[in-house]
Specification:
By secondary structure, this protein is mainly alpha-helical. It has one domain (about 5-65). Helix content is about 50%, strand content about 10%. The protein is built from three helices and two strands; from the N terminus they run E-H-H-H-E. It has a two-stranded parallel ribbon. Helix 1 (about 20-30) runs antiparallel to helix 2 and helix 2 (about 35-50) runs antiparallel to helix 3.
Length: about 70
């Protein structure tokens, strides 16, 4: 895809580090880019992930995740 990846900020040490909070933010950003199908595919992969880190890796394939705690 030619579009630049959206940037999504989260704090891995705070409530915004919750995977569902991150998914909500990613959903908003991908909808802005009219990428609902990409979001649905990503969400399904995240739900199949075996760990938090694996889920973050999946999400990073669609957006730039920026951890403000680091």
């Amino acid at each position: 895809m030619d579009k630049e990846k959206a940037k999504v900020y989260y704090d891995s040490n705070g409530p915004s580090g919750n995977i569902y909070d991150i998914l909500g933010k990613v959903g908003v950003e991908l909808r802005k880019q009219r990428r609902q199908t990409d979001f649905n595919t990503m969400r399904d992969k995240v739900f199949e992930a075996k760990s938090y880190e694996e889920a973050l890796t999946v999400i990073r394939g669609y957006v730039d995740l920026i951890d403000t705690a680091k």
